[in-house]
Amino acid sequence: MKKSLQTSVLALILMFSIISIGTVANAADVNPLCPVAGEMTFAEFGSALTSGSVSYTFDVSTDTGLATVVVNNTTGCKIPLSLSVYSMFDQVLSHQEFFDGSGLVDVSASPSTTFTSKLPICMAQIDLWYGLAPQTLSDSANYADGTNPPTVFAWKYIHNNKDSYQYAAGDFCQHPIPPTIDVCSNIEGNQSIIPEGMTESGGICTTPPPISNGGNSGNSGGSGSGSSGGGSGYIQSSGNGINGEVLGAQTSVAPVELVPQVLGAEIGFPQTGNGGNTASNIIMLVTSGSIVILGAIYFVRKYGVVK
């Protein structure tokens, strides 16, 4: 009985010894610098920076156009960090525009981790963040308080004569101005549309010449034949110049066959053609008739035909 009791006591002592050893081993696996999941909080990261177990170098170069950060971590903990570059257009934080960034990197206990981002040729703010850098910045946010990551813990400027964005002075960035379309390269200034009354061809705008109708029709000229009574005439056009010249171009003259008139055809006098002088022909006809009548009266009186 006594032997059995001693055996049971020894078994209990062995069991508690195993449990104690396991507990000590598990406690040894927990890193006191980052006890939760092996990743540093921002407060733990700040303590590591203060103690020197985490360090970094921060360099910006307008010669190479690069921002470079090298982080050394000897804590054995993961640290989520990122690098970002923002173009600056004025002294307002929310007006800054994201230019380039590294993305989120879990810095491990390796000898060093390097971050690189491109720089613009104008003023910029370069920030080193705990957590993922924001794409847009808010004027009301306090990015350095550490209570709500992302949290900025280091920053630099280029082309800024001051050490802050609130009083920034220097070579601000400029938004590109869209090119102005000039549809008429031959006219001074820029024309976005073709001016009224003009036409465009190959970027040249001109005023089209007036449309010409060939000039006004001129007077008709005609002639008549006494023997046959047939008439003929020609119509020629006249414009602004002689013989129908219109702006230096001569109008064609086309013969037109005219309809003969019958007036005077039987007595051998000229008849009027289209466009002929009607009044002159009538006077000639009356005069000739009077001469015939007077001659008949003289003949009768002289030879006594009439008593």
Q: Would you identify the CATH architecture of the largest domain?
A: Sandwich
Number of contiguous helices: 3
Largest β sheet strand count, sense and barrel closure:
5 strands, antiparallel
Order of helices and strands: HHEEEEEEEEEEEEEEEH
Describe it.
This protein has helices at residues 2-29, 42-51, 278-303; strands at residues 54-61, 66-73, 79-87, 97-101, 105-107, 113-118, 124-130, 151-158, 199-201, 204-206, 220-224, 231-235, 245-246, 249-250, 254-256. By secondary structure, the chain is of the alpha+beta class. The longest helix is centred in the N-terminal third of the chain and has 28 residues, at 2-29. The radius of gyration is 57 Å and the shape is rod-shaped. The relative contact order is 0.08. Mean pLDDT is 76; it is low at 12-27, 220-254 and 256-269.
Index terms:
single chain; 21% helix; 5-stranded antiparallel sheet; 307 residues; Immunoglobulin-like; alpha+beta; 3-stranded antiparallel sheet; rod-shaped; 3 domains
Helices and strands in order, then pairings?
Layout: H1 2-29, H2 42-51, E1 54-61, E2 66-73, E3 79-87, E4 97-101, E5 105-107, E6 113-118, E7 124-130, E8 151-158, E9 199-201, E10 204-206, E11 220-224, E12 231-235, E13 245-246, E14 249-250, E15 254-256, H3 278-303
Antiparallel strand pairs: 1-2, 2-6, 3-4, 3-5, 3-7, 7-8, 9-10, 11-12, 12-15, 13-14
